[in-house]
Hints:
This protein is α/β, with parallel strands linked by helices. Helices cover 27% and strands 24% of the residues. It is elongated, with a radius of gyration of 23 Å. The model has no long low-confidence stretch (mean pLDDT 91).
Amino acid sequence: MINHKNYMKQAIFLAKKGIFTTSINPIVGCIIVKNNIIVGKGWHKKFGSNHAEINALNQAKKLSNGAIMYVTLEPCCHYGQTKPCYKKIIKSGIKKIFIAVKDPNPKVSGKSINLLKKNGIIIHLGLMKKEAEFINRDFFKWMKKGIPWIKLKIAMSIDGKIADNFGFSKWITSKKSRQNVQLLRAKSSAILTTSKTVIQDNPLLNVRISDMNKKNKKNFPIKNFIQPIRIIIDSKNRINKNFKIINIKSKILLIRLKKDNKKWPKHVQQIIVPKYKKKINLLYLFNFLGKLKIKNILIESGSLLSSSLISLKLIDELIIYYSPIILGNNSKPAFILNNIKKMSQSKKVYFKKILKIGSDLKLTINFKKNKK
Length: 372
């Protein structure tokens, strides 16, 4: 008996290898099996390169004839950065394909399946569908709603404070937690903060591979990695060329209500957005960022923006690094939600994952109940 689920699990495992390097594309894994032996493996390694199915077929070669393919996402049928996958699949002689989930891209969704069926290939759809959707939850949201998957990262004391009375936050959490944050950043298409945070902390807001631990450095795909876009909400035009963040030559978007007349480096772009109650219109902003093909964003900011995003129900995932310290009443709170005055108005969240990192706890929290 062939254990179809086991082969799809292996395809999902392969897909995750592309989590740092596929950019706007989904992560995809593919396994080709003949006579219950794996003859081809592939995953999408980076944006613009071969898709998972092509890499698996290239490895299997003639052994793909009469074989079974397991793929985590429907193969593509349109010309983008690469040629359509379905044509090579048909030519390869694959007789049967297990597809975990349809591609949400309207250029593909269901079309490849129909084309493959018309050419005599047996299709089984839905094996480990929920797991396959989960690993590409950012891509599915972006495709369906046009808005990026939004993660909010906060480091805080156990009494919910993010900085002391003077605004200093270095360092609330341990070195191991800060190393883990580099991986969190590396998985993101963009990192967003505010001018207030830049002025207070003067951060670089990039992925610093040198700050990762030895294990992560060894496994990190440096060759194919592209730094996330850095986004600064700067409604009062307070950011200038003297901040460290400007001196790192990877793309920066300054989100403003009006342009200044300064000459900025080529990697810095001023983006003008409409205002809402004298502030940046956040709903417009995230719709606009989706149109820039940014599929997921990591927010690293203070309590004002964090609270606004929670109030507007824009956060998909909250990641909290809890430090075993108490900062007391005079310190800066993580959230300022003045509209909550009684228990019935509280924001319901769901614990997804709890992990101990060094002396700290890392909590991954969803604002919607997981359907799995």
